[in-house]
């Protein structure tokens, strides 16, 4: 599926206007202790963000800390946006889509993965399979999917390994990340979003995770969008497209050779022996002590990119739903079919009874394997 977004503005909610009694008291307290509104309030987190992500490709969202990468991902997945005012248009295959449909066709792997540490990989995936496909897939079909994602993500060898909790042996960092993907891709979502899939991993494991994403995109025609911090040169070269954000605006979208060209045009070529990703990010970052100057430079680059041929073509594509036909017709017809199917699918993927039994089984496993937890629970009930 081709995903595009256009005219995306996100700003914090005005607490005075819409906040409850507690936030009003908090704001009043801020004013009393002399904190000015401008100091606690940033106007726009995202300002006219636009972009296009294509099937079979991985798109990396990059930029300095605070540039707005996670906010954009949240907007695109329509999750975690209750405390902001957001507007803009999201299209799939050129068609404007709403939250419900977007949720049906996408999966979001967030930065903090939540697992029950006492379960094994296989138990966790079986549990997720019931919740995600209980209504639509029979038990043997679910089991087939579980085995397939484990094979796809190189987790078969770790099937019976306990996930583990902090301080206890369990999966490695890379395996944990791959398990988070496994749960999400089990239903083969056409769109996959990941926030910092490589954070906390060394460069070898980071490369492995990005390779997994790339293989998924290529083999299954998925459209994958993720944020990433300081990728190594080797990992950076693996990205099909990169989108650089700066202070909530789009500074660049394109492939790596186009990025190199753009930075040359801006008179900031990548110095020899330098990691290009580091160079691109630092040239779009706010420099401490030189904030005003940095902002002028950032805005200049964002404006210049928006007015360049490349920028205009992406903006056009995102704004009009115009497709450049850069992905094959088989991918395009497949994604039309998926979209039509998603429109008719049910919201809850498991029956009430399936949800109840899966959750009870999971609780029993965690209580029996972690006697300490049982003691705490008994203690809490008295
Ligand atoms: N709900 C919110 N209310 C107010 N400000 C917010 C809110 N969410 C994010 N921000 C601010 O918007 C800016 C962008 O945040 P975001 O989390 O998108 O950055 P990021 O690019 O993902 O950064 P990092 O690389 O550190 O994860 C930050 O300055 C952040 O403090
Ligand atoms: Mg972030």
UniProtKB/TrEMBL annotation:
<feature type="domain" description="ABC transporter">
    <location>
        <begin position="23"/>
        <end position="272"/>
    </location>
</feature>
<keyword id="KW-0813">Transport</keyword>
<keyword id="KW-0067">ATP-binding</keyword>
<dbReference type="InterPro" id="IPR003439">
    <property type="entry name" value="ABC_transporter-like_ATP-bd"/>
</dbReference>
<keyword id="KW-0547">Nucleotide-binding</keyword>
<dbReference type="Pfam" id="PF00005">
    <property type="entry name" value="ABC_tran"/>
</dbReference>
<dbReference type="GO" id="GO:0005524">
    <property type="term" value="F:ATP binding"/>
</dbReference>
<protein>
    <submittedName>
        <fullName>ABC transporter domain-containing protein</fullName>
    </submittedName>
</protein>
<dbReference type="GO" id="GO:0005886">
    <property type="term" value="C:plasma membrane"/>
</dbReference>
<dbReference type="InterPro" id="IPR043926">
    <property type="entry name" value="ABCG_dom"/>
</dbReference>
<dbReference type="InterPro" id="IPR003593">
    <property type="entry name" value="AAA+_ATPase"/>
</dbReference>
<keyword id="KW-0812">Transmembrane</keyword>
<dbReference type="InterPro" id="IPR050352">
    <property type="entry name" value="ABCG_transporters"/>
</dbReference>
<comment type="similarity">
    <text>Belongs to the ABC transporter superfamily. ABCG family. Eye pigment precursor importer (TC 3.A.1.204) subfamily.</text>
</comment>
<dbReference type="InterPro" id="IPR017871">
    <property type="entry name" value="ABC_transporter-like_CS"/>
</dbReference>
<dbReference type="GO" id="GO:0016887">
    <property type="term" value="F:ATP hydrolysis activity"/>
</dbReference>
<dbReference type="InterPro" id="IPR027417">
    <property type="entry name" value="P-loop_NTPase"/>
</dbReference>
<keyword id="KW-0472">Membrane</keyword>
<dbReference type="GO" id="GO:0140359">
    <property type="term" value="F:ABC-type transporter activity"/>
</dbReference>
<keyword id="KW-1133">Transmembrane helix</keyword>
<dbReference type="Pfam" id="PF19055">
    <property type="entry name" value="ABC2_membrane_7"/>
</dbReference>
């Amino acid at each position: 599926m081709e995903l595009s977004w256009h005219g995306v503005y996100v700003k914090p909610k005005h607490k005075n206007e819409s906040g409850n009694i507690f936030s009003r008291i908090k704001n009043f307290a801020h004013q009393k202790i002399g904190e000015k509104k401008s100091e606690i309030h940033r106007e726009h987190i995202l300002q006219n963000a636009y972009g296009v992500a294509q099937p079979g490709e991985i798109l990396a969202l990059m930029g300095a800390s605070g540039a707005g990468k996670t906010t954009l991902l949240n907007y695109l997945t329509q999750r975690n946006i209750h405390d902001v005012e957001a507007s803009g248009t999201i299209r799939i295959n050129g068609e404007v889509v709403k939250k419900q449909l977007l949720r049906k066709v996408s999966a979001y792997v967030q930065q903090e993965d939540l697992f029950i540490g006492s379960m094994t990989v296989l138990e966790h995936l079986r549990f997720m399979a019931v919740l995600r496909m209980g209504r639509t897939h029979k038990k043997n079909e679910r089991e087939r999917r579980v085995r397939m994602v484990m094979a796809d993500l190189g987790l078969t060898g770790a099937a019976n390994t306990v996930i583990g909790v902090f301080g206890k042996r369990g999966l490695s960092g890379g395996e944990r990340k791959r398990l988070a993907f496994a749960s999400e891709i089990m239903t083969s979502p056409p769109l996959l979003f990941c926030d910092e899939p490589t954070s906390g991993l060394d460069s070898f494991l980071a490369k492995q995770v990005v390779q997994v994403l790339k293989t998924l995109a290529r083999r299954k025609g998925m459209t994958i969008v993720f944020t990433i911090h300081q990728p190594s040169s080797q990992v950076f070269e693996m990205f099909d497209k990169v989108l650089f954000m700066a202070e909530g605006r789009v500074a660049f979208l394109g492939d790596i050779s186009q990025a190199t060209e753009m930075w040359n045009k801006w008179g900031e070529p990548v110095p020899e022996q330098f990691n290009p990703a580091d160079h691109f990010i630092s040239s779009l970052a706010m420099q401490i002590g030189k904030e005003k100057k940095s902002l002028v430079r950032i805005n200049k680059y964002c404006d210049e990119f928006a007015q360049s041929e490349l920028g205009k073509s992406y903006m056009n594509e995102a704004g009009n739903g115009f497709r450049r036909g850069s992905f094959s017709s088989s991918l395009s017809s497949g994604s039309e079919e998926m979209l039509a199917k998603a429109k008719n699918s049910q919201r809850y993927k498991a029956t009430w009874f399936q949800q109840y039994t899966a959750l009870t089984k999971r609780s029993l496993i965690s209580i029996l394997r972690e006697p300490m937890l049982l003691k705490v629970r008994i203690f809490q009930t008295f």
